[in-house]
Amino acid sequence: MRLTHNIPSLNIYTKYKSALASQSTSMARISSGKRINQTSDDPYGKAQDTNFTMQLRGLQMANQNAQDGVSLAQVAEGGLDGINSMLQRIRDLAVQASNGTENTSDKNAIQLEVSNLVQNINTTAKSTNMNGINILNDSSGQGLTAMIGANVGEQITIPTFNFTTDNSSGALYSLSTADVTTSDNCKTLMDNVDSAMSQINSALSKYGAVENRFNSTSDNIGAVSNEVEAGDSDAIDTDIAAEMLNYSRSSIVVQAGIAMMAQTNKFPQDVLSILQNIRAN
């Protein structure tokens, strides 16, 4: 008779080991809040989670780009508003200088202020930038491209301009010769200012439209992100109540297995004792 194999104990150990693994899995899911903590838990679900994560990261980056686009448009609008105010002041001075009652000294003072304003416009155009990107001092005419989606091709073009006064390619270059010493020159200056203000207002309109588009895009991205997160949650989030129940069941089986193995491990020794008693008798 062979007493080396305790089959009942082995069977109980197999069930104990399975319950222990189930208990560990439930604890991991409860602790992390996720149904899938490693690929082996659910290969297909893990692949879904990876796809959702990639899409969410793309959307988050697109939303950041949209917010940066809003900031850039607002920076441009601030610079343009400043230039507009200075242009309006130059026009007022040109009207004042064209008045025949102004003497030479007055006109010289007006000319000095006009020249300073033209220089300030030039400085504003050159200093209006974001992260070193020229917005109002760009002669390329290509504008800037911002990705506003998780997929290729989803983008918005941000216009850029050259509103400098000391560059022949600048839209406001005509102001570089601003002169108020004669009535004819004052009239020419007023015409140039009117043309410049028209271009500035056109640029403001474009930046306003771009800003609105970025804001709308950001809202849409937020809505899509919520849907993607909901889908990801359905795919990998754990049912805490169900896992608590599974954990409790597994714990009962584990404790019972320990107790039963303690008993079944005595079987060979008990049988051996009986045989020894029989032999002694």
UniProtKB/TrEMBL annotation:
Nucleotide-binding recorded as keyword: no
GO cellular component: bacterial-type flagellum; extracellular region
Gene Ontology MF terms: structural molecule activity
Boundaries of every Flagellin N-terminal domain copy: 5-139
Compartments, as annotated in UniProt: Secreted; Bacterial flagellum
Keyword set, alphabetical order: Bacterial flagellum, Cell projection, Cilium, Flagellum, Secreted
InterPro entries, per the entry: Flagellin (IPR001492), Flagellin_C (IPR046358), Flagellin_C_sub2 (IPR042187), Flagellin_N (IPR001029)
Pfam family, one: Flagellin_N
Principal cellular location given in the protein's record: secreted
Domain spans labelled Flagellin C-terminal: 190-275
Gene3D superfamilies: f41 fragment of flagellin, N-terminal domain, Flagellar export chaperone, C-terminal domain
Family in the record: Belongs to the bacterial flagellin family.
Function: Flagellin is the subunit protein which polymerizes to form the filaments of bacterial flagella.
Protein's recorded name: Flagellin
Source organism phylogeny: Bacteria, Bacillati, Bacillota, Clostridia, Eubacteriales
